Amino acid sequence: MKIVVAGSSGVVGKLLLPRLMRAGHEVIGLTRSRENAEIIRLTGARTVIVDVLDRERTISAIGEVRPDAIIHQLTALGQRDFAENTRIRIQGTCNLVQAALASGVSRMIAQSIAWAYEPREGPATEEVPLDIDAPMPRKRTIDGIVALERAVAKVPNHVILRYGIFYGKGTWYDCNGFMAEEIRQKRIPATEGVTSFLHVEDAANAAVLALNWPSGPVNIVDDKPAKGTEWLPLYANAIGAPLPNFESCSQDWERGASNLKARSSYGWTPLYPTWKAGLTLGLRHRMD
């Protein structure tokens, strides 16, 4: 299968390219950076330089390649540019979908998030509605996700991967990442809010498998949603940070998500079943 990966130089994309090639696929990495284009070429993948916010260029580039599938892993979160990230989710996704439809691409896999569900009790399944009535500033994130998922659903065969909070190499939760520094500075309190985590290797593996999954959203998260009062002290200890302040509060949408559909219906098995296996033990090993 000929596959275009948009976001091929990101934390998931870097892991995804070699996995796709080992599976026998022909892989083309999209990037808007010439520097990243050279990095992608070193993996053995072909490269196309294009900014997906440029509609005409995106349609032309996809038309020239004529792939069988597009995997959309684009974000601007590495630079913590949230306005740009929203533009990519809305405008960039729309351009990719229009390019796919114009070129007869019938399959798209897209990155979404597993913390966009409306408030209820317990981990969210895929049947729970997205939190479209969320207050600001959360609403900006939800609006971007809703726009992304609606656009991707126009492609005949589409899988929306609702990922948990990433950890692993190159993420905010890496030992030198943004969140690690915030926690070292005691800027993040340990609350009752529940989070579902996901190792980036499991995110990449799911994207490969999703090429053969039926259309629709699927939660890609680990097995054990965790309260901040549980995971944050252990994480702080793993990175040599002081214990966080504890607060008996949470946001009503901080509920975690269930991976039952991915595990039971699609046969996805995470390499890191719980955050304890990677978020804390893995970091401690890397820092020793």
UniProtKB/TrEMBL annotation:
Organism: Ferroacidibacillus organovorans
Domain of life: Bacteria
Any one of the GO CC terms: cytoplasm
UniProt cross-references to SUPFAM superfamilies, sorted A to Z: NAD(P)-binding Rossmann-fold domains
PANTHER family the UniProt entry points to: NAD(P)-BINDING DOMAIN-CONTAINING PROTEIN-RELATED, PROTEIN YEEZ
GO molecular function per UniProt: aldehyde dehydrogenase (NAD+) activity
Designated name of the protein: dTDP-glucose 4,6-dehydratase
Domain NAD-dependent epimerase/dehydratase: 3-215
InterPro entries reported in the protein's UniProt record: Epimerase_deHydtase (IPR001509), NAD(P)-bd_dom_sf (IPR036291), NAD(P)-dependent_oxidoreduct (IPR051783)
Pfam family, any one: Epimerase
